[in-house]
Amino acid sequence: MTPKSFSFADLAGAVLCSLVSLTACRAHHPPFPDVPDEAVPAPPPIFERRTEYYDKAATQKRREWHVWVYEGGVTLRDGEELEWWPGGGMRARRRFERGEPTAEWTTWFENGTKSSECTLGSDELSPMRWWHPNGVLASEGPGRNGSREGRWRTWHENGAPESEGEYRDNRREGPWTFWNDDGGLCESRVYRAGVAVDVR
Question: Is 30 domain-assigned?
Fold first, then answer.
């Protein structure tokens, strides 16, 4: 029996058949399937505590707060934030929730006297107060999420009344009365959207 001889045409046909089979295989079973972008979950955010210092030796805190760090470096403040005066006394205590101001915010003067207090993050009316450095109440009235609303009063540093009137959308509205620090009447004004339209 003699071995069968192959012509060039036979060899070319065999190669072509193999290529067709390989192509068909790849068409039905891609080695690297395409995955939609939405199917790849973003990495979870990282919760960090951050601190600023007055000195390079990092022994005197200036501010301490917490943030969520998202993909791409985007940050959102969350939780309590504290600030100190250079002498170490408390300067401010605030709170955030996913970047939004919330709860009670309080500040102090460098001498330790309370400077202000208000409640944020709520549409309900709540008291807002400011003090003079000597501890005397400077202003007081209702507010809604940090915006003055309703009847407000202010006082001079000696405790004498300074002014009284209404706020609407954080602007003076209607009649206001002003006094000198000796208790004498100074003047009366009428406001419209924060602008004095009549002075007496």
Answer: no
Single-letter code of the amino acid located at 8: F
* Better pLDDT: 103 or 32: 103
Which tens digit of pLDDT belongs to each residue from 101-111?
999 999 999 99
Residues 95 and 139 in one domain: no
The residues with which 147 forms a beta bridge, in sequence order, are 144
pTM value is 0.75
The answer to whether 155 and 162 are in contact (CB under 8 A) is yes
One domain for residues 128 and 159: yes
